[in-house]
Write a structure and sequence with these properties.
The protein has 106 residues and is mainly alpha-helical. The protein has a single domain, classed as Multidrug-efflux Transporter Regulator, Chain: A, Domain 2. It contains five helices and three strands; from the N terminus they run αβααββαα. A hairpin with a 5-residue loop joins strand 2 and strand 3. The longest helix has 27 residues. The radius of gyration is 17 Å and the shape is globular. It holds the Pfam family MerR_1. This is MerR HTH family regulatory protein. One of its GO terms (molecular function) is DNA binding.
Length: 106
Amino acid sequence: MPRPETGDRFDDDDYPAYTVGAAADMIGATPAFLRALGEARLIEPLRSEGGHRRYSRYQLRIAARARELVDQGTPIESACRIIILEDQLEEALRINEELRGSKPSG
């Protein structure tokens, strides 16, 4: 199987490029916070061949949003639920917009 070009990985939001330490530094949190998000099933990091957690940019954006909510005093379980509901709402709005755009004018 051919390996993706390196440049493709830089553009891929889902590529698990960041170790737990680097990811925690990027969002201003601790590795324990990222592990808690995994335990709450908000984000599930991929594992390297050695079994180490790896995070994507997409996952880091979600983790950063969770950190914002927790920093505002929201319990982590509630923050995770809020983010899941926000994501579901965004998807529902996108689908609704697509369906409205596909109706014939008349």
